[in-house]
Amino acid sequence: xxxxxxxxxxxxxxxxxxxxxxxxxxxxxxxxxxxxxxxxxxxxxxxxxxxxxxxxxxxxxxxxxxxxxxxxxxxxxxxxxxxxxxxxxxxxxxxxxxxxxxxxxxxxxxxxxxxxxxxxxxxxxxxxxxxxxxxxxxxxxxxxxxxxxxxxxxxxxxxxxxxxxxxxxxxxxxxxxxxxxxxxxxxxxxxxxxxxxxxxxxxxxxxxxxxxxxxxxxxxxxxxxxxxxxxxxxxxxxxxxxxxxxxxxxxxxxxxxxxxxxxxxxxxxxxxxxxxxxxxxxxxxxxxxxxxxxxxxxxxxxxxxxxxxxxxxxxxxxxxxxxxxxxxxxxxxxxxxxxxxxxxxxxxxxxxxxxxxxxxxxxxxxxxxxxxxxxxxxxxxxxxxxx
Length: 387
Prior knowledge:
The protein is an alpha/beta fold. The chain has helices at about 35-55, 65-95, 120-145, 150-170, 180-190, 195-225, 230-260, 265-270, 280-290, 310-315, 345-355, 375-385; strands at about 1-5, 25-30, 30-35, 100-105, 105-110, 270-275, 295-300, 305-310, 330-335, 340, 360-365, 370-375.
């Protein structure tokens, strides 16, 4: 039930989901909801494993126990979806776009496209999910009280109260990638003034939580005089592995975050020269070579940029055809969101790229003069290789 706020390019919401996205099962508040294949497996396992509990609580129910058990699995994952919707609505209300909600093996995740703007917003978005689960647990508890002890309704309400209590309490544990870890990261961020410091602290705590998730169930069983249950050990291992891996990803993200302040659009921009759309490609490439430029910017009759030459298309044009192909034929129209300022640095530069994903951007001076072309791959390379 973690909140994933790694920057990500917004996909086409109506496109067919890829295998990694799972199966799209709906759309809520404009956000697509996916279920991964593992979700269906776990739902089936919950149905099968909970059926004996149903039979024990409701004697004589017979084969209907599987229908009741399946109902619990669906209601539980509906609760998980409500948990994720709490994250999503908090993010949307704060102006942060949400890419998708995914239900997976161990719960769900809300993929938020942009980082929180401050520690207060980070803590609110992260904490609202577990608080919602605890609220659902309270509602289910009070709904169960007037129902007959051996009724199906009482059993389902009790099960939902207990499962949501566990989800809420577990997610409040102070370690990434759990929601409580994000709250801890926000607190440290607030105290130190550095987002990455909070991320590192919460990720390291997350690794401690991961180890506890593996060994505590076995230790509790031994302390009570029982041999550790195999199922508990398997679940502990799965949960511990999930948290450990998420904490490791958070540490890598923090390392990348520390490199972002050193980014500069001006330093990463490639030199470009302006050419008219009717200029033969061969002549434009000759002029670029003489000027030591790698890119071509198409300009109108008044010298205003109107397009960027697609470098791959230009180079793919056969040499013998280049004198007859106008530059305009291998260019793409320049959109307003494809222009960035040469003065952009650090997080402002990254935010501009995230808002309008593209392979190349026109870079202009504050007065509007063309400075060059920024290639997204150069920015990614700079972040990956910075000391």
